[in-house]
Amino acid sequence: MSKQEKETQASVARAQHSEPTITLYGRIAAGRLGYVSWPDPPDLHYSIVIDDAYDGITVLDGQPTALEAGIRNMALIRANTYKDALPHAPVIRVRLHPPEGMSAQDFARKLVVNSQKFVSYVAPYSAPRNLRGSRMRPGEYNSSSYVAGLLQSVMGYVPTVSAAGFQAPGWESPIPAHYFKGEALR
Fold first, then answer.
1. Given this model, what pLDDT does residue 186 score?
2. In what order do the strands lie in the sheet with 44-52?
3. Which end of the chain is more exposed for a tag (fewer CB within 10 A), N or C?
4. Angle at CA 174, nearest 5°, toward 158 and 75?
5. How many whole angstroms separate alpha carbon 6 and alpha carbon 52?
6. Which residues partner with 28 through β-bridges?
7. pLDDT digits over 49-87, tens only?
8. Greater model confidence, 41 or 134
């Protein structure tokens, strides 16, 4: 067997047995608007990036709606999924590990399934307390709340994330799990 054939065979074997990696990407929220919190640290927008040898790159996050679903559904939270492109200009990356007893493949699959089950256009999209605050008011949610809620719906808890020099209002206020089961009431 030639060297090239051995390398090809090793590459195929690696792909066949590879586990997806799941990473939390944080970038400045809404571009320059993420700096509205000044003099407090800039706000982050989180996305979950699943990198899988079979399915490519899948990015999951929450977004506020504009007019794409009509004026009645403006400023609500919707699930956002895109493929084969990474979030632009991340300032932090945190590797996420599946909970005890769950494989990385099951973790990735459940994240995608629960994001697809999310009841979009129901929960109002809110700004943090006092607009510049580092926390949301009770019962209010934003895109960080979406990602925290998605992780909680799969993992049973919201992982602790350290992002020195940044804040992520909404992380402390995950969207309740029933929104990720298709059970939210309008």
1. 47
2. 77-83, 56-64, 44-52, 21-28, 92-96
3. C
4. 145
5. 23
6. 44
7. 999 998 899 999 998 887 666 666 668 899 999 999 999
8. 41
**Which residue type occupies 56?**
G
Distance CA 169, CA 147 (A): 12
Q: Helices 143-155 & 104-117, crossing angle to 10 degrees?
A: 130
Residue 173 to residue 76: CA distance in whole angstroms: 16
Between CA 69 and CA 52 the distance in angstroms is 31
The per-residue DSSP string of the chain comes to: --HHHHHHHHHHHHHHTPPPEEEEEEEETTGGGGGGGTTSPPBEEEEEEEEETTTEEEEEEEEE--STT-GGGTTBEEEEEEES-PPSS-SEEEEE-PPTT--HHHHHHHHHHHHHH--TTSSBB-PPTTTT-SSPPTT-B-HHHHHHHHHHHHHSSPPP---TT-B-TTTTSPPPGGGGGT----
Q: Which two tokens stand for residue 56?
A: 């490519």
Q: How far apart are the first and last CA of the chain?
A: 63
pLDDT greater than 70 at residue 138: yes
Nearest to 141 by CA among 49, 44, 33, 64: 64
Q: Model pTM greater than 0.85?
A: no
Higher-confidence position of 129 and 142? 142
